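Q: C-alpha cells for this one, please.
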Amino acid sequence: MSEDVLAGDGVWSDESDWEVADLDSEFGEDEHLAMPTVAVVGRPNVGKSTLVNRILGRREAVVEDIPGVTRDRISYEANWAGRRFLVQDTGGWEPDAKGLQQSVARQAELAMETADAILLVVDAVVGATATDEAAVKKLRRSKIPVILVANKVDDERVEAEAAALWSLGLGEPRMVSAAHGRGTGDLLDDVLEVLPETPREGTGGTGPRRVSLVGKPNVGKSSLLNKLAGDERSVVHDVAGTTVDPVDSLVELGGKIWKFVDTAGLRRKVSHASGMEFYASLRTKAALEASEVAIMLIDASEPITEQDLRVISMVADSGRALVLAFNKWDLVDEDRRLQLDKEVDRDMVRVPWAQRVNISAQTGRAVQKLVPAMETALESWDKRIPTGRLNNWLKEVIAATPPPMRGGRLPRVLFATQATTRPPTFVLFTTGFLEAGYRRFLERRLREEFGFDGSPVRISVRVREKRERRK
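A: Here is the predicted structure, written as C-alpha cells:
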C-alpha cells in the first residue's frame, strides 16, 4: 500500500507509527485531582503571604510592606515530600473589623471553616495579642487540626521570646522565619502529619470544574460571583481594584459544584502597573491557566475597549473554553444593542466560536443562563473525535477543496489524528506545508461537522521529511 494516501482506518505506515505514538507525550492531558487544603490565617501583617510564598517555593501571593494587601482567600497548589495539597492565603483576621475589613475578616473565617488543616501565624517579635487570643478561641471550637506558627524568628534571641507563645494553649509553637526560610521544612513535615489524604469537602473524581472570572477592572466580576453564590464570597467595594489576587470559591449551580476564581482586573499593559498591581496581574494570568473555562465579563453599556480585546486574546492564547458575558444589560437601550452587535462582528474575530450571554450581575438578570453556556463550552473542550471518523471526513473535505499548491506542488494530507483534548488539538501529517488560510478553512469545516461551540480548536501540521528511495 502506498504511504502517500489518507487511510480511512487511520493506520499510518510502519515507518511513521512512532510519530503518532509520540503525540501522547507531547500533548499529554492534565490530571485534576481533588487535594486537601491548608489555610494560613492570622491578624494583619504577621507574614502570612510571605509564608505562603516560602511553602510554594516561588512568589505567588502578593506581598507588600503594608498591612491589608491580601483581602480574599486565595488557593495555590503546593508539593512537599511528594504530596500535593492546596495552600490558602487569607486576609488579616480581626474580631471587631468594620467596613471593608469586616468583609476581609469574613473571608478568613470561611477559610477556617472549610480547610482541612490550619496554620495560625503569630508575630513572634510582637508576641501574643488580644486578636491572636480571639483567633485561638475561635479555632478551638472547630475540629480541624491547628498548628501554631511563630513567624519572624530570625535568630536565637527571638526564639527565646517566642517560647512565651505556649501560653496561647495550642501546644508547641513552630518557630520559623518565612522571609529567610528558617524552620519551614520542619513545619511542612508537621503539616503532612495532620493533613488528610483527601479533602473533607470532596466532590469525587476530578473535583469541581474550574471557572475563572476575567475582565478589565470594575466590570462586575466580584458582583457576579456573589450573585451566583447567593452570598458574599468575594469582597466588593466602591473602590475599583478591590480584588488583587485570585479568589477561590465553591458554588453550587445547576445541581453541580463549580470552583470559581474571581480575579483582579487586568490593566492595559502589565508594564504600566507597579508594586502589588504588577504581581496581581501575573497572578491573574496564572489563575486563567489553572482554570478550564473562562467567563469574560464585558460592560455592554460602553464601547468594547482595547483592554477587553487584550483579555480576550489572553483567554484564546491560553486554550481555555470561553463564555462572553455582556454585563450591565439592564443599562442597554435599543440603539446601544445595534451598535454592540456591530462592535462584536468587527472586534471579536478571534473568538467567533465563544458562547454569548447577556446578563446583569447587579439585578441577577439571565445569570442562570451562564450554566448551560459553560456546560456546552466544557463539553466541546473535552470532545474527542474517533480517528477513523476524522479521516473519513477529512478525505471528503480535501477531495472537494484541495489545499493550495506550494512551489508548484500540491501538499497531500497523509493522516490526521486528534492528539489531545482540553482544547481539542488535531495533528495533520502531510507531504508539504499547509497555508494558514487553509488551516482556518479546515477549522471552520470541523466546527460545522462536529460542533466545538465555546472551545478553541488547534490544528498542527507535521510535514513528512523526504526519504531517499531505496534501490
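A few notes: The mean pLDDT is 81. The longest strand covers residues 413-420.
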